[in-house]
Amino acid sequence: MLSWNTLNRLQEFDYSTPHACFVTICTKNRRKLFWRDVGAINDRPFALNAFGLIAEQCIREIPNHYSAVSVDHYAILPNHIHLLLQIHTDTDGRSMIAPTISTVVRLMKGAVSKQAGFSVWQKGFYDHVIRSEADYREIWEYIEHNPDEWIKDSLFVP
């Protein structure tokens, strides 16, 4: 079960150091905001609506604001998003000045809410520091296929 408490962090882990992190952020009251029903187009019965497009734009802009942060993969579901974020080193392997994952998430959430014109998100988010290549691949696959499995998702709300 996902823990939504942002205080539930790895003890003594510096979240601004180079690492990959899986993040899930839910909409306020798990309100379905991001999809519109379009029937089965490209094997997916949904498309992003105006709010989903705002969220996607803000996600894609993260590296423009933070050169040390990349969005390796993401999925936008009706009432939550998944991000696979990575904080990088410079070309010599040294840590770059980087924000924490909390800062990146807070500012992305704020940008989406500002453009939407209302408070979109619930407080906090779920995060998981990726510890191995196998962990990274498993999370990548989860993000890739989660929209197709929406009805089985633990955050599904009919």
Order of helices and strands: EEEHHEEHEH
Instruction: Bin the strand percentage.
Output: 25-35%
Radius of gyration: 16 Å
Widest sheet, order of strands: 4-5-1-6
CATH class: Alpha Beta
Shape by Cα distribution: globular
Share of helix among residues? 25-40%
**Count of distinct structural domains:** 1
In short:
By secondary structure, the chain is α+β, with helices and mostly antiparallel strands. The protein has helices spanning 50-60, 62-65, 101-116, 133-145, and strands spanning 19-26, 35-41, 44-48, 69-76, 80-87, 126-129. The chain has a single domain (19-148), classed as Transposase IS200-like (Alpha-Beta Plaits, 2-Layer Sandwich).
Describe this entry's structure for a reader:
With 158 residues, the protein is α+β, with helices and mostly antiparallel strands. Helices cover 28% and strands 25% of the residues. The chain has a single domain (19-148), classed as Alpha-Beta Plaits, CATH 3.30.70. Mean pLDDT is 83; it is low at 1-7.
What topology does this entry show?
Layout: E1 19-26, E2 35-41, E3 44-48, H1 50-60, H2 62-65, E4 69-76, E5 80-87, H3 101-116, E6 126-129, H4 133-145
Antiparallel strand pairs: 1-5, 1-6, 2-3, 4-5
Helix pairs in contact: 1-3
Can you give keywords for this protein?
158 residues; 4 helices; single chain; alpha+beta
